[in-house]
Design the sequence.
């Protein structure tokens, strides 16, 4: 493997993994914008990831040629054996396992180790080199149980029935996972969605992930009127909080579901009243546990707090290498539709 301006390049196979710009041949681990870029000539990915790319980019930009790889299936290209294995990050997310001349490298993409009812769980694969993310690669990041965080949201709904609970979530992955966790916790009422979340929730449903009753946030009867959805759960991209759209809701109690909510300053700066520490990435302990499981003597870190993780690897007698790939960790949302987003709207990272 070689690090290039486009990203990770497999020399014997002549293809890129999650390239940051258009290339002739790409393997895509998952559909977030910092990994799935448009306009490649040939794209190999899971069926779900290809579906997500088409939904977000349009039919003509999700790869001129698209090849579905079923997880576990071996695809051979120029003597390199390629296999996709579930990564547990979002629907269709996969690790890329490459075997060539007796050596194996595993590129994890983004991954989490917690249970998620909306996607297949992470599967560790032993290898010679493991390429890992490190979004939450500091000892301070130890994620609590997601069900307990959802219980806090439900308790707040009980305590403040006159307020709409607006939860900032990613359109891809976080929204659907939070919906599924709410269903498991017994919330069977309609969950209301910002329009920017509807398309991907419908796509999840099309792939067999049942989310229960959902509806778009209704428009007020009169222009400028508000007071809607008291006591209800409303999901929206984080950027929507800064738009006039929020005025529709009844005394909105602003929440956010993110691993970054462990950092109180982030929550305070965004005006989050109820921070929910729910992450779709591995925390510090899970990063270390995963590295132990894959048994790789060499660890490459693509993004996040690579310095801390590389140092931890050195203490364990492992070779660590920070790759410093450009554009990683910026899981930007699709822009909020113009009619609901004034010019001052800013999209903030929430992982």
Sequence:
């Amino acid at each position: 493997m070689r690090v290039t301006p486009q990203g990770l390049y497999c020399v014997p196979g002549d293809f890129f993994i999650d390239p940051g710009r258009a290339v002739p041949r790409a393997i895509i681990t998952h559909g977030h914008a910092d990994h799935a870029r448009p306009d490649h000539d040939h794209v190999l990915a899971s069926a779900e990831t290809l579906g997500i790319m088409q939904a977000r980019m349009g039919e003509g930009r999700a790869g001129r040629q698209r090849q579905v790889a079923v997880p576990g299936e071996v695809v051979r290209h120029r003597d390199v054996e390629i296999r996709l294995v579930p990564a547990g990050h979002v629907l269709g997310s996969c690790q890329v396992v490459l075997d060539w001349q007796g050596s194996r490298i595993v590129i994890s993409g983004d991954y989490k180790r917690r249970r998620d009812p909306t996607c297949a769980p992470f599967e560790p694969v032993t290898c010679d080199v493991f390429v890992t993310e490190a979004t939450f690669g500091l000892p301070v990041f130890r994620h609590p149980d997601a069900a307990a965080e959802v219980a806090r949201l439900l308790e707040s709904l009980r305590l403040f029935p006159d307020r709409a609970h607006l939860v900032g979530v990613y359109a891809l992955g976080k929204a659907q996972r939070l919906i599924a966790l709410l269903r498991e916790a017994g919330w069977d009422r309609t969950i209301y969605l910002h329009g920017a979340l509807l398309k991907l929730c419908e796509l999840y449903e099309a792939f067999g992930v049942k989310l229960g009753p959902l509806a778009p946030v209704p428009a007020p009867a009169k222009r400028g009127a508000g007071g809607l959805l008291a006591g209800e759960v409303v999901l929206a991209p984080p950027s929507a909080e800064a738009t006039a759209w929020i005025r529709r809701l009844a005394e909105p109690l602003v929440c956010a579901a993110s691993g970054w909510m462990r950092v109180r300053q982030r929550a305070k700066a965004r005006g989050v009243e109820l921070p929910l520490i729910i992450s779709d990435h591995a925390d510090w302990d899970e990063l270390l546990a995963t590295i132990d499981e894959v048994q790789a003597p060499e660890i490459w870190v693509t993004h996040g707090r690579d310095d801390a993780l590389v140092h931890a690897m050195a203490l364990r007698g492992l070779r660590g290498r920070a790759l410093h790939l450009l554009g990683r960790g910026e899981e930007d949302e699709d822009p909020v539709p113009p009619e609901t987003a004034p010019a001052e709207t800013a999209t903030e990272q929430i992982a």
About this structure: Residues 2-140+280-322 form a domain with the Metallo-beta-lactamase; Chain A fold (CATH 3.60.15.10). The helical segments are 47-57, 146-159, 174-184, 195-206, 264-269, 284-294, 306-315. The longest strand covers residues 80-86. The chain has a mean pLDDT of 91.
